[in-house]
Amino acid sequence: MKRIGIVLLLSLVISQAFTQEAQNIAGIWWNDKKTSKIEIKEENGKFSGTVIYINPEKYVNGEPEKDFNNPDPKLKTRSRLGLQILSGLKFHVSDNEWQGGRIYDPDNGKTYNCYAWFGQDPNVLYLKGYVVGIKWLGRSTTWTRVAN
């Protein structure tokens, strides 16, 4: 009985450690061009990212850019501010990365499969969007955590 208690306690501690590691992606990030900030949050065990700031220099007629490259004509007039561009990322302990996500590029109106990981610096997030399930066939970007 004592062993079961120890195993359960260890399982809880390990589970908490993995949960904390998975949460490392949460926060506010500058995109690679430092023109917008994306807030990544967890929702039901998966992480998504929404544009929460656009540099006013990118505004058109005093308003944030529209999603004019979207292939859906009904969405071309929506604002890029408030746009969810990242969804479905789930942390995979074995690979030490977030996988199974989708990333939308408003610059070309396309959505890609994606995954994300950290290098040595937990304030630099690497993301790679790819097509047709081939990870090496894609494009990478680097986001930088916004300093508090």
Element-level helix/strand string: HEEEEEEEE
Level of helix content?
10-25%
CATH architecture grouping: Beta Barrel
Number of helices: 1
The major sheet is characterized as:
8 strands, antiparallel, barrel
The share of residues in extended strands comes to 35-45%
Mean pLDDT: 87
Going across the biggest sheet, name each strand in turn: 1-2-3-4-5-6-7-8
Number of domains: 1
**Rg over alpha carbons:** 18 Å
Regions with little confidence, pLDDT below 50 for 5+ residues:
5-20
Q: What structural class is derived from the secondary structure elements?
A: mainly beta
Number of strands: 8
Span of the ends, CA to CA: 47 Å
Shape summary: globular
Predict the CATH topology: Lipocalin
CATH class, named Mainly Beta
